[in-house]
Amino acid sequence: MHTTITIVLLSVILGLSLPASKAQTQLCSVPGDADLQACVEKLRGSGRGVIEITAEVQLTEALNLDNLSNVDFVGTQDAPVVISGGVRIPLSPCSNFQDLLCGDLSSIKGLARHLYVDGVRHSRPKASANIVALFTAESTTVSTSSYTIDIKELDSRLVKTVASWSENVEMVYTGQGSPWSESRCAVSSVDATESTLTVNMKTPCFDTLQNKPCGQSTSTPVTIENTGLADLLSSDDENSFWVDAKNSRVYVKTSTSQSSFAVIPDLETLVFGSNVRSITFKNLSFEHATYNQATSPAGFIEQQSGALVYEPVTNSSCCDDTTWLPMPSNVRFTDSSSVKFSGCEFRALGAGALQFDGGARNNEVTDSLFEDISGTAIQLGEYNTANITDKSLQVTSNTISDNVIRNVANEYHGTCGVQVGYSAYTEISHNEIYDLPYSGVSIGWGWGRSDPSYASNNVISNNKIHDFKLLLGDGGGIYALSAQPNSTVDGNWLFNMGAGAGGGAYYPDQSSAYWTISNNVFSNASFCSDDCEWLHVWQDSIHDIDIVNSYVDTTTYENNGIDVTMENTVVVEEGQDWPYEAKDIMDNAGVRQ
């Protein structure tokens, strides 16, 4: 894990003049002559440019690559060179709490939602179970803007705790409304009388939560975060922190007692590009960015797989009158083509890591590492573009291969390893994806309501996906929605599916159609303790799928589809050797060396 050193340095080395008949290449080396954005501007429109980055760069604002083309960003050290949006905050023992470290936040522009010490993510304090229970009690009344708690017979210590809450205490609704999502809304204020506490919630978030599409409304929190210093002091989590926003001060409990500073991500966007063409990022690490929407008035209302709802619907039992937008990522490209990431790392990021949308085409993400990400590793495409006929606006021909994706969705647990909306000719191959609270790969959208769409010819092959669905239910290692003609799931090895109820390892969900699912393995079914289906085809809207040459160690599956054929399913009993065909699939799955 890299630590951040505040360097905003670059140098520009002009390339040799070439004959007019040949393209000229300008070179830019870090550190040296200019900051990174100035170097980008110098090379913009130059024909061909290379930016060599040899020292860590701390960004103070997002790197803007709009309309850039034909530039390579290359890290030139043995390890990937860091591009960071973090601010280094000195820490020293707190004068009034010797077990804690304190730091001054006057240099932080944002909310200081995330904090790292020696590369270790620290969590925010949580309310006790007794406090959470107040919000689910029968005597508590709920409106579209508040909870009102009857306190006449409550322990005065509980009352005092809730009454002391400040803005941005955050309710977390894990698996509520639907077993696969996790929404979040923040407190705005608390009003107290002799008989009640009214906890006012930020709106429209709390209204949307209770008027969410597809019959998934809720108001029942499972945990409550960012609750205060007392909960930090009593927390069993040895790596945690709390921000006293009023006094611009942070309190840190850390297992790294020798640490003299923390890194607080202060930017929500590290890199953004629109209309970008033919640029490459190689041997770079993108670190320390944040995401503050959950504490905004709109909050974080998740439908599924990071697709967010921003306002309440008039008919919450209906799914047809909603605009879903992907949870944003800290590095994003829209309407861009031939953008390539190779040998890069994405870590310590507070949103999704990398996003392509708005007509993204011919982009590649290869040989890269994604770890310690709050949301998804890679978001490809959108959720409201099913019937776009202008091919320049369709998401097509993008490749995600030979990447390691681990410990992602570790804050926004309803997001997936890789998330794809509507797309065509997408290739997701030879990745290793693991340590996930929900699904490994999710592709498609719409539950068939917009079929036929342009989604087609997608390939999910030779991936090694394991230790998934560890928290939430009704997901899969490979999950699909709606018709995607001529698409294939082939040569994948899935194992260690978690105990989250519902779904299955291979899960073509509602209205999935025209897939071929062939030559796949599911092993170690005993890792799962509940509802452990290797295949989950649960209803008759799922149709025209061929499932061939499956190698599994459980007989548990479900097939209620129409024209969903199953051929040559080989069940390996305990103690038996796997067939050589299955061993070949296992050996070939995952990152190629």
TrEMBL record:
Domain Right handed beta helix: 396-570
SMART domains according to UniProt: PbH1
Signal sequence interval, chain numbering: 1-23
Superkingdom in the source lineage: Eukaryota
Xref: SUPFAM superfamilies: Pectin lyase-like
Pfam families according to UniProt: Beta_helix
Classification via InterPro entries: Beta_helix, PbH1, Pectin_lyas_fold, Pectin_lyase_fold/virulence
Keyword Methyltransferase among record annotations: no
Protein name as catalogued: Right handed beta helix domain-containing protein
Keywords carried by this UniProt record: Signal
